[in-house]
Amino acid sequence: MKILLMGNPNVGKSVLFSRLTGTRTIASNYPGTTVGFTKGSLRLGQEQAEIIDVPGTYTLEPTSKAEEVAAEMLKEGDLIIDVVDATNLERNLNLTLQLLERPVPVIVALNMWDDTRHRGININVAGLQERLGVPVVPTVGVTGQGIRELVSRLSEAAAPQMTYSTSDERWAKIGDIVSQVQSLTHRHHTWREVLEDASSHPAGGAAIALVVLIATFFIIRFIGEGIINYITDPLFHWLWTPLLMKLSLALGSGGFWHDILVGKLINGQIDYFQSLGLLSTGLYIEFGVVIPYIVAFYFILGILEDIGYLPRLAVLMDTLLHRLGLHGYAIIPTILGFGCNVPAIMATRMLESRRERFIAATLISIAVPCAALQAMIVGLVGQQGIQYVAIVYGSLFVSWIIIGLILNRVVKGFSPEIIMEIPPYRFPPWRVIGDKLWLRVSSFIKEALPIVLGAVVVVNILYMLNVFNYIANIAAPVINGLLGLPKETVVALAVGFLRKDVAMGMLAPLGLTAKQLVISSTLLAMSFPCVATFAILARELGIRDMLKATGIMIVSALIVGCLLNLIL
Amino acid sequence: MSENMQLTLGQMSAGQTGTIIRILGGRGLNQRLEALGIRPGKKVTKISTMLFHGPVTLRTDHTQVAVGFGMAKKILVEIDTSA
Fold this sequence. Notes:
The complex is a heterodimer of chains A (568) and B (83). With 568 residues, chain A is α/β, with parallel strands linked by helices. Chain A has two domains: 2-184, P-loop containing nucleotide triphosphate hydrolases (Rossmann fold); 202-567, no CATH class. Chain A contains 24 helices and nine strands. Chain A is elongated and about 80 Å long. The model of chain B has no long low-confidence stretch (mean pLDDT 87). Chain B is globular, with a radius of gyration of 12 Å. Chain B has a six-stranded antiparallel β-sheet. Chain B has 83 residues and is α+β, with helices and mostly antiparallel strands. Chain B starts with 5 loop residues before the first strand and ends with a strand. Chain B is built from two helices and six strands, in the order ββαβββαβ. The A-B interface holds A 58-59, 61, 63, 87-88, 90-91, 94, 119, 121, 167, 171, 196-197, 200-202, 205, 311, 314-316, 318-319, 327-328, 416-424 and B 14, 28, 31-37, 39, 47-55, 57, 61-71.
């Protein structure tokens, strides 16, 4: 049996999905978190049912790619759990009534039930159930309230197949139902609403955005550095180094296996940035440098997402983004990109036109460094002084604007206007934020660590085979002549194709000047995306547009590199 | 009943409330707005406009929706004068 979870965007389908299946999925407080679909399974007595978390849709007449997916999947379902936001009954019932026209049995989950009370909304559940002709169960996704009842009543799901000849007729019916089952009590503005209104105003919104930006920056640094200084660095130095030194001795302080596992000893000691061994540099880059910042970044991102701040930022940024051929919503994939470009590029599906998706994906792969790369930039370039880190970020930001302006003029097609629901501010329980953080960090470790370790091994072998010398000599004119970098940097740029954080690690032993570090890390950020991003670009844009995007990346990286070389 | 003032959502000032009379656009625009609960007969309150003809934020029932300025110019509203 196939059960579809359907409903408007941002009504809590993904949270219910996690509750029903025990599978963890990413849910946030903005429309469009689920762009693909997620499957899970649920035990129903003897039977094993498949549950599908369908992307949110306002109507069965699709207006975006994500909505098309939803309408398409409807054909396959045996039962629909229609998730309805109880605080927005009228608009949500439009989809419900469209679903009730179909021959598939429906059960309604009246979600966000806890929110109705402090919004002064009273809904007569029995009355609603009677008028719709299908079971209605009040639920609270984040706490799990009502889930058991929902599951136990799945068998009561019905397909009344009431049809309406026009949408006006349907709206009239909805108006009827709402006026009969819902009553509103007046209550005063809460401070939450005052804050909501303030962030919608131009001046208030800009002020809040600035505060959020600055706070985000300091909190990420505070958490990231805190984890490094008080947890990971002490662990590596007091626990791991002595163990590795024993291993080094046992392996005879040199030779093939020693260099692969422990790496080269620098002055008889392990240097976590320069030794380049699997168990030294490989592990240290991930656990000692990158993961502390991944934790910090996704913690803050999770809070901003769940509170519902990002759609407001989208409205605020809309005018600027129109100049770059995008509209405000594109800021959400862009911010996701600061964590990892892969989910960011997937999230561009929420943009309506192909032109927007191309521009957004290209700009993200060029000018938005992922958290792993950023952690290494802060770690390595930051040693030379914080002003050099600022130059890297400044160059990326200016490139983002300029390339966007150009793409907006050159790329054919149109970019539509923004139209999006602004969800209310919500304050999710810490446990929900913690779960999501854990889900993201653990999947980062699962996906990144094997590639990181693999990259370290490949690099070592290529070094032994002298392949790098060969590449370095070929690339020397460009690297040395145009960019003012030693020819060995090409090795790092090549490794950047596998993993950007390992690539930055490769720059450490080269003894680069501050200027050279700035140029090479900017190049790494802008040029080829890593292999995972490549794959997702090809899937989302098609091979041709992916190659176009890659061309733009290489050209702009070279231009910016040369300019930096001339200016600094 | 006296003739009430009719403005587009773009022309309304923040805080004004009224009833949508008509959407001056094609079927596509009508459908997209309708899906978000914005359709003739609904009461709307304009919350704000961003600078330089940025998006207009409005409230209808318990939902806030932001629409581009171009769309806001196509939503015709009869202003409540009673309040």
